[in-house]
Design brief:
The complex is a heterodimer. Chain A is built from no helices and eleven strands. In chain A, the strands form two sheets. In chain A, strands 2, 4, 5, 9, 10 and 11 form a six-stranded mixed sheet that branches. Chain A has a five-stranded antiparallel sheet with strand order 1-3-8-7-6, with no helix packed on it. The radius of gyration of chain A is 13 Å and the shape is globular. Chain A starts with a strand and ends with a strand. By secondary structure, chain B is mainly beta. In chain B, about 0% of the residues lie in helices and about 50% in strands. Chain B contains no helices and eleven strands. In chain B, the strands form two sheets. In chain B, strands 2, 4, 5, 6, 9, 10 and 11 form a seven-stranded mixed sheet that branches. Chain B has a four-stranded antiparallel sheet with strand order 1-3-8-7, with no helix packed on it. The chains are: A mainly beta, B mainly beta. Chains A and B meet through strand 4, strand 5 and strand 9 of A and strand 4, strand 5 and strand 10 of B.
Chain lengths: ~110, ~120
């Protein structure tokens, strides 16, 4: 079992729709959760991070965390073609310095 | 502007050659990291350093070496012992844990290494 699992996609949504990206993790000691966006050929850029169960909203993005189910998701509202990218989920144990990454979900937003 | 600078952007290695990838940051971050990304895969940790003159191996350290002589710099050497070095190499940095909570890592633009 991979430590951080994501559906590789591609996930295709029409412009203006909600894109839902999911991530599960195996280590119950994980305490910090991060979403990065990576455009093709570029480096990852941080979108959001979440530490506590529940929802955290930032503009069009909402991160959702359920530690009991070991599940974290990212919702993108009003999806735009510029959101088309690979989204990486990353997880850290408390006190550890290394981050565990999923392989990413490729999102395509069609005009 | 503060940021992480990686150079070169593209690098070619001949068989038997060691090559060094540069990573410099002016964010005053204590922790620095090196990752390798292969197509269709997530990032895998090569080495990390929490403080000057100290570093630890990550999951795939074999065939790589690092140094951390200055806070701002964390160069990665890909040695000839690394038999499959073709990949996208990413350097990242972060501030220490705050209130017991891990802080996000921020990435440089990466270096693409290929075998000649």
């Amino acid at each position: 079992q991979k430590e951080v699992e994501q559906n590789s996609g591609p996930l295709s949504v029409p412009e203006g729709a909600i894109a839902s990206l999911n991530c599960t993790y195996s280590d119950r000691g994980s305490q910090s959760f991060f979403w990065y966006r990576q455009y093709s050929g570029k480096s990852p850029e941080l979108i959001m991070f979440i530490y506590s169960n529940g929802d955290k909203e930032d503009g069009r993005f909402t991160a959702q965390l359920n530690k009991a189910s070991q599940y974290v998701s990212l919702l993108i509202r009003d999806s735009q073609p510029s959101d088309s990218a690979t989204y990486l989920c990353a997880v850290k144990r408390g006190g550890d310095n290394d981050m565990r990454f999923g392989a990413g979900t490729r999102l395509t937003v069609k005009p | 502007d503060g940021g992480i600078t990686q150079s070169p952007k593209y690098l070619f290695r001949k068989e038997g050659q060691n090559v060094t990838l540069s990573c410099e940051q002016n964010l005053n971050h204590d922790a620095m990291y090196w990752y390798r990304q292969d197509p269709g895969q997530g990032l895998r940790l090569i080495y990390y350093s929490q403080i000057v003159n100290d570093f630890q191996k990550g999951d795939i350290a074999e065939g790589y070496s690092v140094s951390r002589e200055k806070k701002e710099s964390f160069p990665l050497t890909v040695t000839s012992a690394q038999k499959n070095p073709t990949a996208f190499y990413l350097c990242a940095s972060s501030i220490p844990t705050v209130g017991g909570l891990n802080q996000p890592q921020h990435f440089g633009d990466g270096t693409r290494l290929s075998i000649l």
